[in-house]
Amino acid sequence: MYQSIDESRTNTLSKRTTTLVAAVAVVACVVAGSMLFSSTEPRLAAIARSPAMSMAGCRSVAANAQPQGRRSAMAGLSMIAGGLAAKGASAARNVELIDDRVAKKSGFDIIYEARDLSLDQDTRDGMTQARTGLADTKSRVSSAATKLEEAGAFADKKYWTEGRNILRRLVGTLRFDLAALADQKSGAAKKEAIKANKDFFAQLESLDLAMYKKNPESAAKAYKKTMAAYKTAASLY
User: Fold this and answer.
1) SS3 state of residue 39
2) How far is CA 39 from CA 51, 105, 198, in A?
3) How far apart are CA 168 and CA 175, in angstroms?
4) How far apart are CA 49 and CA 37, in angstroms?
5) Which of 23, 45, 62, 163 could form a disulfide with 151 if both were Cys (CB 3.0 to 4.6 A apart)?
6) Per-residue pLDDT for 83 more than 80?
7) In 3D, which of 69, 61, 27, 29 has the Cα closest to residue 45?
8) Phi then psi for 36, rounded to 5 degrees?
9) CA 200, 201, 204, 210 torsion: positive or negative?
10) 199 vs 2, more confident
């Protein structure tokens, strides 16, 4: 009877001792973890060699402390380097002011007129500006003579495709320019200008047809008539 009582007491004491040791080991691990980033390596090594740490199985604290400490140090250095670079970049940045008033007067921001929905379609397409800027219109009509001569030269060489391409690139703008110049006139002068424009484009279409048929004789005759009609129309403006 007494022997059983003694054995139960011994078992109870051993359980309490084991529980106490386990609690001490847990507290030691928590303290070591909290001091991991703030302690130096000698202190971490001393904690790792303590009996409580050995009993709790925390032998890897010293082995893990050095890599984590290096990782933290590298992260800190990266943050410091990034801050210095940002500070240097902000200090080196200069504000440059550009005066675009002259460029705007020459039509630099005409694209914004094309996007302005409060303007009418002719203004957004540039038609109104082309009609009011008669100096540029007359200049384009005068330079058309050079393009017509190039088309005639290609017709003489039987380069039909090149010659017809010149006429197609020319006729769209030239038709608009001659119509804009004719609109500036009134009465009989306007009727004469419109008739001269129609005659010119009729001869131009005849030249294009002759080049389409690849007929050198017809192309040569049509070219002469086209140049004569062009000179008649251009002389009115």
Assistant:
1) coil
2) 19, 70, 98
3) 11
4) 18
5) 163
6) no
7) 61
8) -65, -45
9) negative
10) 199
Rounded to two decimals, the pTM is 0.49
- CA nearest to 225, candidates 203, 198, 201: 203
Dist CA 136 CA 171 (whole Å): 16
What six digits make up the tokens of 99?
């005066």
Which of 92, 89, 82, 31 shows the shortest CA–CA distance to 56? 31
> How far, in Å, CA of 61 to CA of 218, rounded?
102
DSSP codes joined into one string, 48-65? HTSHHHHHHT-TTHHHHH
How distant is the alpha carbon of residue 78 from its chain centre?
32
What is the C-alpha to C-alpha distance for residues 104 and 113, in angstroms, rounded to an integer?
Answer: 12
As a whole number of angstroms, the longest Cα–Cα distance in the chain is 146
Count other C-beta atoms under 10 Å from residue 234's C-beta. 18
Separation of alpha carbons 138 and 25, rounded Å: 100
- Assess contact for 131 and 183: CB atoms under 8 A: yes
